[in-house]
């Protein structure tokens, strides 16, 4: 028996609604929505809208990890989002990282950084009032290294291969925001 696409999507939506209602644990043993703090729920809602923008059938394989950090030392909790598993957000060079700032009840994307790998550290150094970030970079035949991403007054670099990134030759002090073993939660 073949199931048409519309029927399959309706069935998957019903399963997701039931899982949310019953708080069925996902593959990581975490529940989908019932145990989210208000700020975590707001990030998830924002990311769902961001991921679905212009796409009537968003990628249901998307998992993400959100770290709340103060990147500007202004008391606000900015968010570093790392997509951990996704056909849409990950490739051979790593996965996409978003840097969000709070705007009212929601968020705004300050930077989209492709080809990042874990861990992601918030460095003690700053550029244009924002903490520098460090991520593991690796692609093609390039050996892995830690890349420093500096804010230029508008955003962090779009890619770890950008001329705006700097290879860190020695350890720079900072704190891990997204650990190397970060387990994502389902976006949908």
Structure notes:
- The chain is α+β, with helices and mostly antiparallel strands.
- Helices cover 18% and strands 40% of the residues.
- The chain contains two helices and ten strands; from the N terminus they run ααββββββββββ.
- Strands 1, 2, 3, 4, 5, 6, 7, 8, 9 and 10 form a ten-stranded antiparallel beta sheet that branches.
- The longest helix is centred in the N-terminal third of the chain and has 18 residues, at 5-22.
- It is globular, with a radius of gyration of 18 Å.
Distance between the termini: 27 Å
What average pLDDT do the residues reach?
A: 82
Number of strands: 10
Radius of gyration (CA) equals: 18 Å
Could you say which overall geometry the principal axes of the C-alpha atoms support? globular
| Strand and helix order | HHEEEEEEEEEE
Structural class: alpha+beta
Instruction: Tell me the number of helical segments per DSSP (H or I, 4 or more residues long).
Output: 2
Main beta-sheet annotation = 10 strands, antiparallel
Strand content: 35-45%
Helix content bin: 10-25%
Low-pLDDT sequence parts? 1-33
């Amino acid at each position: 028996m073949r199931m048409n696409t519309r029927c399959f999507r309706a069935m998957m939506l019903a399963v997701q609604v039931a899982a949310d209602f019953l708080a069925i644990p996902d593959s990581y043993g975490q529940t989908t929505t019932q145990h989210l703090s208000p700020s975590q729920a707001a990030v998830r809602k924002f990311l769902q809208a961001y991921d679905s923008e212009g796409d009537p059938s968003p990628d249901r394989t998307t998992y993400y990890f959100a770290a709340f950090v103060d990147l500007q030392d202004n008391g606000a909790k900015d968010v570093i989002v790392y997509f951990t598993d996704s056909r849409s957000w990950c490739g051979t060079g790593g996965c996409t990282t978003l840097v969000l700032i709070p705007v009212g009840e929601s968020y705004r994307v300050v930077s989209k950084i492709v080809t990042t790998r874990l861990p992601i550290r918030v460095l003690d150094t700053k550029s244009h009032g924002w903490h520098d970030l460090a991520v593991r970079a690796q692609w093609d035949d390039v050996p892995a290294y830690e890349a420093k991403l500096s804010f230029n007054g508008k955003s962090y670099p779009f890619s770890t291969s950008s001329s705006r990134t700097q290879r860190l030759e020695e350890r720079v002090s900072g704190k891990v925001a997204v650990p190397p073993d970060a387990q994502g939660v389902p976006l949908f």
